Every structure is written in structure tokens, then in C-alpha cells.
Amino acid sequence: MRSSVAAIAAVLALSAPALTPAVALAAPAAKSDAAPSIDTMKRLVKELSSDAYEGRAPGTVGEEKTLALLTAEFERLGLKPGNKGSWFQDVPLVEITAKNVSPLSFTGGKAPVTAAYGPEMVIGTYRTTQPRIEVKDSPVVFVGYGINAPEKGWNDYAGLDVKGKTVLILVNDPDYQTPGLTGPFNGRAMTYYGRWTYKFEEAARQGAAAAIIIHDTEPAAYGWNVVQSSWTGSQHVADNPGGNADQSAAIGWIQKDKAAALFADAGLNLNQQMAAAKQKGFKAVPLGAIKANVSFDNDLRKHASKNVVALLPGKTRPDEYVLYSAHWDHLGHCQAAPDGDDICNGAVDNATGTAALVALAQANVKAGPSDRSQVFLAVTGEESGLLGSAYYGDNPVFPFSKTVGGVNMDALSVAGLAKNVVVIGKGKSQLDAYLDRALGAQGRVATLEPTPEKGYYYRSDHFSFAKHGLPMLYFEGGEDLVKGGTAAGMAAAEDYTEHRYHGPKDEYDPNWDWTGVAADLKLYYDVGRALANTTDWPNWVDGDEFRAIRDKDSTGK
Fold it and tell me: Residue 301 to residues 128, 129, 131, 137, 238: CA-CA distances in angstroms?
């Protein structure tokens, strides 16, 4: 398979293969051969990831510039403000900046163990009305993976009262090292129980004063550098009623070697305890007389960040909608690189996805109106825990009962054209059939995630919509590159994760290979366009966790 853009155009001209019978697809619209512009992509990614945007953190000048750019682009294309005449949906947030952070110290063992803020531990809070947090002489308990899953007969908190205590938690699921996709928690495929967000949620439900996750690179899927850059500096939390007073006072991470020293101080072996925690029936282990202590002050600022909502009205069924989503935000100023650069520009993550929204809107305008309306949603606060998409999910501008489905775009691959795409959540919904058709026209294939233990399904904005029953297709450029094969693709992915992901070096590079982006954007376009011109309402497959929600809410059939 050739890797030039011309070759891609050639395979796109081929007729599509027979479809999977999961769902009937509409015939392509008359002008559905429009291709999203790579020139538009290059221009916007370069602009959005420039230092002038200061890393696009919510509530900063970077947000102001991003919103101004996106609305100007959508208005120029002739799209309509999507939220009752406004381009924006306000997302109430609280910016929390920790300062005067003490070390996380553990006393009462053989000798004090202290973890320094930044290189050895990170700490913060979800509480939005407390200018000072202090955890003092809090008993410490190791709760294994911190999971309470009644449907699986698994409860790491069984018979345990952790009110006022500090819990130490392992990241991922107990069976993440199990080959294949079998096991109490789906083996290598992470469940939501494995995500750090769940760990803190459950610790709060149990009444823990503090919840600390033990970082381990393999099950976390990223190194300490990512934790440090993501969890230091200003953080953003949803501005909920009650100020999140029901959450643990302190939440954070600790380096594994520092945790090992703490366990040894209590006369325990961390590796042995980690092995025990993988077994059903594991009982939480108090760390004897050891007490945790940490304190920090918070600068608190309430503000309304914004989702951008642009509408391209449909011609025959304008009250039915197809949704395109991507997050516009990134980390802003972050942990500086050795050269002093402290702006996390977020060029790949996610200036590429943000630019794709504009490029796809542009292509659809060029192709002419579709039957259904198309919504282009650029959300805020993804890097802080999917905050903007979660807010839209709870407060949809366009009812989910009238939204047929859509696509989510996050960090498009600039490593070159791949023979495959990796579908996050492959096999969950009938949208797979739409993608298979578009892939067939390109002579490419969809494959399962090569690293399901990383839990990508729960790490981007499509998850916020899935929880409300809306099928969303999310895929990434594959690792089987035309130039270099799987070895080259894996090397490129590992290099990005180690050296650029959530760091200051995720910057625009004029030497990027855009052939893969061109092919993947055409897939997003073809899938979205087909959805916009069919009368069908794709659903989740039978037995999927989100099927019942969709069946209850959808007006589809």
C-alpha cells in the first residue's frame, strides 16, 4: 500500500465492500466525496498550540483566544450559534491552586518517611470552599485496588471503617496482568474500577480523609513525569452545590519506591501486599501505628469556562442531530522542561482534534446540507476529568433522545499513514458498521486496542455521552504503519508518551507526516456524513452496559 496522499485518494474512490448486517446504512450523499482540508488542519494546529495560547488552560487568556478563534472559524463557514443564539455553553468551574504544600509525612513507624511535593508525591483536593486543607495524624490503611463491586462479589472495603483515615490504593484492576480479556475485571482490558477517578470517588463514599494512589508505570500507562505535570499547578473542579464537601479532604499520588519504604517502615513488603490484593477476598491491611500528615493552602477562583457549540442545520430532519466532539483545553503552564519551557502547548493533545472540528465543518459545508443537523462541540476541562463533556451530558443543548450518535476526536496521529485504526471500545455499538464501510473504501481495517489495560475508553469525552446512552465512535490512528510496520508505530507511540504527552514538548512540528491524519479525517467525515443522511438510529449491541439507557431514551424507531 502506497503512503502518499494521492494513493489515499485512489483507494477512497473504490466502491465500498458489503456491510455487516448490524445496521442498515444510507447511500452516500451526492457530494459525500468532499475531503477535510489538511491545510486547514495545519494552520489551526500551529495557531492553537503556539505559545500565545499559553497551553489553553480553562479560565486563562488561552481560553479567550481559543474561543475567539473557533467562533470566528465557524461563523466564517456559515454555521449557526448552537445554544439558543449563543456560541457558548457556560461550564461552572472552580480553579484550585495549591500553595505552601507540606511534605507528605508518615510517623509512628520505625523511622519517619517523608515524600516531597512534586518529585515524590502530588496532592490536591476536590473541595471548592476550603482555603486550607490539613490532614493530621490520620491512620493509614492499604485497601488494595480500592474497589467495591457488588456485582462481582468484590469489596476491598469489606468490614472496614476508614472515616478519618488515609487509604493507599493501587492503580488499575486486580487482573490487569491476566492475558486476554477474561477475568473478574476483563483481564487486560481496564474497567472503570481501574481508573484513578473511580478510586477517589469510592474512597470518598467510604469516608476517607485522604486517598493516595501508589504510582506504578505499567498499570498507570504513563510515567511519573505525566503525573507530576498533570497534578501540579492550577487544577479545575466542577463547581457543584455544597462545594464537594463529601469528597476526601486530600487526594493524590505517591511514587512506588516511596510507598515501598513506607510499607517497610510498617514491617510489611509492598510487593507481597500487591500480590495479595489481586486475589478475591483480599482484606485491607492497616499500617499499624503509622499516621499520615499533610497540609496545604488553596487559592480558589470560581469562573465559567465554556463549551463551544456550533450548528450546521439539516435540510429535511433538522430536529435530529449528529454530534462531533473534541476537547479544546490543555494544561496551560506546567512543570518546566530542562530548557525552562513551562508551556504545555498540547499540539497533538488536542489541538489536532479541535482543528478537526473546523476541518470537518468546512468539508460538510462544501458538500451541501445533510438531512440531519450536525453539531460541532468543542468542550472544556477534559484534562481535569472530562468536566466540559460531563456538564454537556447532564445539560444537553440538543436532547440525547434526538441525537443519533456521533464521533469523538482526541489526539490524531501524526506518525504517518497506518494500515489500521484502533477502535476504542470496538464491538460495543452498531457504529462499528459505519466505520467498517468507510475503512473498506480505503483498504484499511479496524483492530482492537493493543493496550486495553490503559483504559482509554474512560479517558476521553465520548465516555461522558455514553453514560447517557449516546453511541459515540472513537478511534485512533493505528500502529501498523505503511512505512515501518508495527515496530515503527509502537516506537512512535512510546516516544510520544515518554517525551511529549502532557509535557512542554507536545509542540507543533512542521515535519509531521500528515498522511495518516488525512486518511483518518476522511473516515470521521464519511461516518458523520452517513449518520447525517440515514433514517436509522444505531444502538449499542445487545447486552452492552449502555444499551438500556439508549432503549429508554431514544425516539429512534
Answer: 9, 10, 11, 29, 12
- Reading the block at residue 391, the C-alpha cell is 456538564
pTM, 2 dp: 0.84
Residue type, 391: Y
Half-sphere exposure of 271 (CA within 13 A, CB side): 1
Element at 81 (helix H, strand E) = strand 80-81
Angle, in degrees to the nearest 10, between helices 61-77 and 352-367: 10
Half-sphere exposure of 269 toward its Cβ, with a 13 Å CA cutoff? 4
Closest C-alpha to 366, from 533, 525, 530: 525
Could you list the mean pLDDT of each consecutive 10-residue stretch along the chain, which spans 557 residues?
31 29 38 80 98 96 98 98 98 96 96 96 97 98 97 95 98 91 85 93 98 96 91 92 95 98 97 97 96 98 97 98 98 91 95 98 97 98 94 97 96 95 94 97 93 84 95 94 94 92 95 96 97 96 90 64
Element (H, E) at 406: strand 403-408
User: At residue 369, what is the residue type?
Assistant: P
The whole-number pLDDT of residue 397 equals 98
Residue 272 CA to residue 436 CA, distance in Å, equals 46
Question: Hey, what long-range contacts does 152-155 have (CB within 8 A, 24 or more apart)?
Answer: 152/184, 152/185, 153/280, 154/184, 154/280
Q: Give the pLDDT confidence score for residue 25 in this predicted structure.
A: 43
- What is the spatial distance between Cα 44 and Cα 53, in angstroms, rounded to a whole number? 12
Rounded Cα distance, 82 and 461, in Å: 19
Which cell is 406 given? 456521533
Query: Would you state the pLDDT for residue 282?
Result: 96
pLDDT at 20: 32
Interacting residues of 150 by C-beta distance below 8 A, sequence separation 6+: none
Of 332, 447, 431, which Cα lies nearest the Cα of 380?
332
446 Cβ neighbours under 8 A, 6+ residues apart = 420, 421, 422, 423, 426, 432, 435, 436, 439, 475
User: What ranges in 237-282 are assigned the alpha helix state H?
Assistant: 256-265, 270-277
- Is residue 292 a contact partner of residue 51, using CB atoms and an 8 Å limit? no
For 37, the grid coordinates are 482540508
